[in-house]
Design brief:
about 300 residues, alpha/beta, TIM Barrel, seven-stranded parallel sheet, two-stranded antiparallel sheet, 11 helices, 9 strands
């Protein structure tokens, strides 16, 4: 698992010119690690909290409020069987990603996270949450877990621009995000951003990437805004008030963003993929491998790679 000979990018043993999560986990654990997604039935403070405002405009969670979820052990066994068939001998990183996964009393969180860590061949835990859902007690629990296992806290940032946060009904501004992010100093943090948000041009998206580079998180996930039926953003799109990025525009923007990020920053995702049955647009997001291949080809054409313009 050494870097590929002759590769212009040091954090790769394949043709990738960015620091994939797969590469990071294989280097860390010495074997393939599969991410096992679990749903613990969490809601979100931006949906039903004291100051909840209905959720972000693109969020599908309000459409599934009150959903019934299977026991964690049952979910894990089912999904682990699929991943083990694809990658025999792999380990698992359990990923709580539905809803805001610190939006519960600390003892409830402890129970859920401890159960997940008890499952066979689990080497780590990823917890998706919001920067405004991190009480001091919860952060203490996360620090305790971090001392015992591989832990990643995934925070939805989406954009650094406050005017965008208002348009998408994010429920907090960038200063509030930073307050939560700073609480997690010293922990592995993954930041999520979305390209193509309402009202944003390319320079605004690049400004978000440059600010993330300054923050130096352990990992970044980049998503494409897509339109799901039943969400507020679907009505904007139907009215013609929401221009969406073409695949070519998205690929170019992602490559530009990666060029500004530190080379050691892990890239956990480079596009979003909605449910085929409810996706309204853009249809090209359904072809995830095509998007990833286009990113690879663009870097080769540019003779470029992640971090080429990063100045630490």
């Amino acid at each position: 698992m050494s870097p590929r000979a002759g590769s212009p990018f040091p954090y790769s043993d394949t043709n990738k010119r960015y620091h994939t999560y797969d590469y990071y986990l294989r280097r860390k654990f010495g074997r393939k690690c599969a991410r096992i997604t679990l749903d613990a039935g969490f809601s979100c403070p931006n949906i039903d909290g004291v100051s909840g405002t209905g959720g972000c405009v693109y969020c599908t969670a309000p459409l599934t409020r009150g959903r019934t979820v299977a026991p964690l052990a049952e979910q894990f066994a089912e999904r682990r069987a699929v991943e083990s068939a694809k990658w025999p001998g792999s380990a698992s990183v359990v990923y709580f990603n539905e809803g805001t996964n610190t939006y519960a009393p600390t003892e409830k969180l402890r129970q859920l996270f401890e159960e997940a860590l008890s499952f066979p061949d689990v080497v780590g835990l990823a917890v998706a949450t919001r920067a405004d859902a991190l009480s001091d007690e919860t952060v203490d629990l996360l620090r305790e877990l971090d001392r015992r296992t591989f832990l990643v806290i995934e925070l939805g940032l989406q954009s650094i621009h406050d005017e965008t946060a208002v348009r998408i009904n994010r429920g907090h501004d960038y200063a509030s995000f930073l307050a939560g992010y700073n609480k997690l100093a010293g922990l592995n943090v993954c930041l999520h951003i979305i390209n193509g948000l309402p009202g944003e041009d390319k320079e605004m998206m690049l400004a978000t990437a440059r600010e993330i580079a300054r923050l130096r998180p352990m990992m970044v996930k980049i998503h494409m805004l897509y339109v799901t039926d039943g969400t507020p953003i679907a009505e904007m799109w139907k009215r013609g008030d929401l221009p969406l990025l073409t695949r070519e525009e998205y690929v170019g923007t992602v490559c530009d963003q990666l060029e500004y990020l530190p080379p050691e920053t892990v890239i956990g995702r480079l596009t979003g993929d909605g449910e085929r049955s409810s996706l309204l647009a853009p249809s090209w997001t359904l072809k995830k491998l095509v998007v990833l291949n286009e990113i690879d080809k663009t870097f080769v054409k540019r003779n470029s790679y992640q971090g080429i313009y990063f100045k630490g």
